Please model this.
Amino acid sequence: MDYVRLGDSGLKVSRACLGTMNFGTGPGVGGCDEAQARRVIDAFLDAGNNFVDTADLYHRGDSERIVGHALRGRRDSVVVATKAFAPQGPGPNARGLSRVHLTRALEASLRRLDTDHVDLYQCHMWDPETPIEETMATLDGFVRSGKVRYLGCSNFTASQIVEAQWAAERVGGTRMISLQPQYSLVARLIEAEILPACERHGLGLVTYAPLGGGVLAGRYRRGGTPDPGSRMSGLLAMSSPAADRWAGEMLSERSLGIADEVAAVAAELGVTPTEVAIAWVAARPGVTSVIIGPRSLEQYEQNAAGFTLDLPAELAGRLEEVSRPAHGPVTGASF
Model:
């Protein structure tokens, strides 16, 4: 098993990270029951992987509870990452990155995860209503208390990464070591500014959505309708601006054209499009770990095969060319 350092830290994680957005049957996109989720978690850990990512947002905490149950007896061998920001109640202080919300959110996550610490605690998104100094000072307090080992963020822009790291220095606190951005053959815009910012400021990349919401796996076709229960159908049903925008980008003619090339490369190699898409992301410069989000053991096995596939340079070049961004940055998803 190949373990790599996460950012400017001594923390070592597997190249595959198990994302648990699909674990749970509470409100949320997709979902599978605990028995099925446990089979996936066991297979992932039994293969030697050690990195599991969740969030209090996922199925309103059901995902964290499932992870906590599954890790009983082997918690110390697993790097557990979770995230906070999302609303956890009706009040104005029940969301965001303020001291009051983060303190409550961490305690609730620790209870659901059935653990006394989180290895990597991440800001799920930027909070424009809270001074970043307050956020970083609060997170530093978690580290000093022993309830959190390392800090990270998700969906931050390049300037927000810089602001957070500078704020940590100003308050004499703990810097972040990781970023979770969307990154795939259909979503490469982090390469322009975010990747250089991460390299300059010591953040490792833990990328999500390597399959572009399923489009690169060949699940969607021109003029077709996403299958009921699929992640894409769930996003479309949300009818939120962020979800609609993300789904529109993933189902655009450009994305479907890239998916066609992925399928062609997969056919030449005698593998699945899923393997090709994951192998491409895993081999990209600066990528530390790739989050996969299987809902079944079969999906996990298909995803896992992508980490052992070595794409020939000629075929990787074809994918590079067909997926090259043609315009400037657009706002990414926040899931």
